[in-house]
Amino acid sequence: LSQYLHSFPFNYQDTFPHGFALDYNQLKTIQQHHLSTYPFENLSLHYSATHTISLDADALFEKFVTADRGRGGYCMENNAFFGTMLRTMGYDVTSVGARVCNAINGGDGETFGGWSVIFIVSFRCLQETDGSHMVNIVTIADSKYMVDVGFGGNGATAPLPLREDDCIHERIAPSSEMRLARANIKQCTDASQRLWLYQARDTSEAAWQTQYCFTETEFLPADYAMMNFWTSQSRTSIFTQAILMAKMVMRGGEVVGAVTMFNGKVKRKVGDGVEERCCVTEKDRLEVLREWFGVRLTGEEERGIRGLVTELKGDGGT
């Protein structure tokens, strides 16, 4: 735990002089520093010898902390690791599964993907099959909060209370907002079922965009093992067909922007400023990984992408 907290750009013993208060403000501080330190990324499915993802707690700690090479992971890696760190601190954490809204990948904005291959075999399109997600629910006193560090550029940047009061929270300063809503979803045959919907928007004038839905039913390691296997190995999973990355930017103690990557296209958006770059070769992308994301790959990892659909070959990228 000490190694993990020392990875943040502050002295946690000075920041928490009286130990771990296990309150909302401390949880928010740790979540935001995690988001700006450990990226959402699926590099292990492309830049590695095995092209696999492990959810083993020791393997995750080695990857995130011990190796000290700027690595993170995709949703189940990031949230599983973060949940372990929170439990070690003393927080009451429950892990739950989520269904990603198909609008995220250009599909129907009122439908959602499944939790695993068991639930998605009847769907036809790529955007409708990449639906598995994982979030943590943290209980503080009598209040529950949804805490997510694994959804990329559109993810939540602070704990969101599980309350039906339409409370709006700042997501990225100065204008991006987020909230939780409670509603039934179109695919449910039981109209009485109500799920939590995580929603975000870029400005207060924009329409809310649902990102994913979840329940409060606890998921077990065996559930995530199935979800992780399909997400990381299926040839129709976007995670095996594209390189995805996102890392939040913090300044002055608040989240002010994000750096994102989709294959060879990279964007840094902080406030009203936007900087973009297009990588056309592997050399370009490895340079961006180092300079924009702080990720340092080994030689073996760099060679792992050879022959894959995501390899950049100098023709404009994938």
Question: Can you put this structure into words, describing what you see?
Answer:
The protein is α+β, with helices and mostly antiparallel strands and 318 residues long. It has 10 helices and 13 strands. The chain has helices at 2-6, 12-15, 24-35, 57-66, 75-89, 117-120, 221-233, 238-241, 282-293, 299-303; strands at 40-41, 92-100, 132-140, 143-147, 160-161, 169-172, 176-183, 195-201, 209-218, 244-251, 254-262, 265-270, 273-278. The strands form 2 sheets. It has an 8-stranded antiparallel β-sheet with strand order 5-4-3-2-9-8-7-6. A 5-stranded antiparallel β-sheet has the order 1-10-11-12-13. Helix 4 crosses helix 5. It is globular. The relative contact order is 0.15. Residues 116-129 have low confidence and may be disordered.
Short key terms for the protein model shown above:
8-stranded antiparallel β-sheet, 10 helices, alpha+beta, 318 residues, 5-stranded antiparallel β-sheet, 26% helix, globular
Q: Cα distance, first to last residue?
A: 39 Å
| Main sheet summary | 8 strands, antiparallel
Count of alpha/pi helices: 10
Number of strands: 13
Order of helices and strands: HHHEHHEHEEEEEEEHHEEEEHH
> What would you report as the Rg, rounded to the nearest angstrom?
19 Å
pLDDT < 50 stretches? 116-129
User: β content, as a range?
Assistant: 25-35%
Query: In one word, what is the shape?
Result: globular
The strand order across the widest sheet is 5-4-3-2-9-8-7-6
The overall average pLDDT, rounded, is 89
